[in-house]
Amino acid sequence: MFKWLKNYMPRGLYGRAALILIVPIVTIQLVVSVVFIQRHFNRITVQMTSAVVVEMAYLLQQVNDAPNPVAARAAISPLGVPLALQIALPSDPVKSDRAITDFTARVVERVLREGLVNLSAVDFETVQAKVVLGFDTRHGHMRISFDRARVSATNPHQLLVLMAATGFLMTVIAYLFLRNQLRPIRRLARAAEAFGKGQVVPYRLSGATEVRAAGKAFLDMRARIERQIEQRTMMLSGVSHDLRTPLTRMKLSLSMLEEKDRTELERDVEDMSQLVDSFLSFARSDAESDQTETEDPNAVARRVIAKFNRTESRVKTGELEAEGTMRMRPASIERALDNLVGNALRYGDQVRLSVLTGRGDLRFVVEDDGPGIPAKMRGEALKPFARLDAARNQNKGSGVGLGLAIASDIARSHGGHIRLGESEDFGGLKIELVLPR
């Protein structure tokens, strides 16, 4: 039932933590201000008004006991100055008036009417900072006015200002403390994100015990992965040497045979050599030695297109929408695009390479007019050594099913992914290499 509330909640840890801090502070201040202060000053208002009621009752008694208006005025005139009252007898009738937002006036009027029987009207608005009372006496209408401060407690501005200032100060202190606690978490998140993109940034343990434990686990994991990659690279170097040496000897031996006897064998040796190169290229994809650089994605796309069009112009240049530069490993991206464009040329006659920008990402899009890949088989196509005979015409090429897998590994090392679809313009396969910006 509270799912709608999630749309208005902060997404980041800073915002949520600040909300956790600010909401209780504001709630406490509101509760104290409205419940305690309002009730407290209402009681004070009742007490002060009750004192005025006693004075008004005495004046009314003096007026009503007098035999005539002259005697009534003579009885109450000496009381006006000592009691700080302005008295008019007789006077014009008084009309009741009170502001809607004046909550204290309601309490004052209620107490006055409960204690004074002859009270006809209470006016809080006609004379500024004054309360005007109208009475019906035996000698006519009587008008009495006095300062509003006598019946209403002064608004606790000092207390409210002190509460607001203290709340603001404590919020700032809590924010600074919170920032110091969240900074190690953000540093850990940046280090993990960078490592997911193939970058190793310095990171040292700091923060609370739980954050240090998470950071130590991350460092241990990163060390294990780096050690595994190093061991794998060393093993592949040995495998490369061990496999290429016999292949070289086989090529030398074949060169001594008659041409009619060596044609088929040379083709087999060449296929074996390509297979070894493809396998080593795939296994080495997560151990690239090229460094992260600031590069123009449009320039990378143009280099790949120019490379394939040196012999024949079959790769078209699509839209190049990238603005400015971004951090990437240019050699790895070019290698991934080489595989994607090479696969497209193997299965189609027309190929187009574009660079498109989206909300927070950048896409290298390769489209062809080949047979494409059915939607249900696209997940399988990204796996190593996948050869989808029913989907792609294998007679058009001798691939070993590693092109998409290598490109997918390179995309993941940059924090991105590979997305397969259908080209709207060519009708064949559309491959998007998506990188976050």
UniProtKB/TrEMBL annotation:
<keyword id="KW-0997">Cell inner membrane</keyword>
<protein>
    <recommendedName>
        <fullName>histidine kinase</fullName>
        <ecNumber>2.7.13.3</ecNumber>
    </recommendedName>
</protein>
<keyword id="KW-0812">Transmembrane</keyword>
<keyword id="KW-0808">Transferase</keyword>
<keyword id="KW-1133">Transmembrane helix</keyword>
<dbReference type="InterPro" id="IPR003661">
    <property type="entry name" value="HisK_dim/P_dom"/>
</dbReference>
<keyword id="KW-1003">Cell membrane</keyword>
<dbReference type="InterPro" id="IPR004358">
    <property type="entry name" value="Sig_transdc_His_kin-like_C"/>
</dbReference>
<dbReference type="InterPro" id="IPR003660">
    <property type="entry name" value="HAMP_dom"/>
</dbReference>
<dbReference type="InterPro" id="IPR005467">
    <property type="entry name" value="His_kinase_dom"/>
</dbReference>
<dbReference type="Pfam" id="PF02518">
    <property type="entry name" value="HATPase_c"/>
</dbReference>
<keyword id="KW-0547">Nucleotide-binding</keyword>
<keyword id="KW-0597">Phosphoprotein</keyword>
<dbReference type="GO" id="GO:0005524">
    <property type="term" value="F:ATP binding"/>
</dbReference>
<dbReference type="InterPro" id="IPR036890">
    <property type="entry name" value="HATPase_C_sf"/>
</dbReference>
<dbReference type="InterPro" id="IPR003594">
    <property type="entry name" value="HATPase_dom"/>
</dbReference>
<dbReference type="InterPro" id="IPR036097">
    <property type="entry name" value="HisK_dim/P_sf"/>
</dbReference>
<dbReference type="Pfam" id="PF00672">
    <property type="entry name" value="HAMP"/>
</dbReference>
<feature type="transmembrane region" description="Helical">
    <location>
        <begin position="159"/>
        <end position="178"/>
    </location>
</feature>
<keyword id="KW-0067">ATP-binding</keyword>
<keyword id="KW-0418">Kinase</keyword>
<dbReference type="InterPro" id="IPR050980">
    <property type="entry name" value="2C_sensor_his_kinase"/>
</dbReference>
<feature type="domain" description="HAMP">
    <location>
        <begin position="179"/>
        <end position="230"/>
    </location>
</feature>
<keyword id="KW-0902">Two-component regulatory system</keyword>
<feature type="domain" description="Histidine kinase">
    <location>
        <begin position="238"/>
        <end position="437"/>
    </location>
</feature>
<dbReference type="Pfam" id="PF00512">
    <property type="entry name" value="HisKA"/>
</dbReference>
<keyword id="KW-0472">Membrane</keyword>
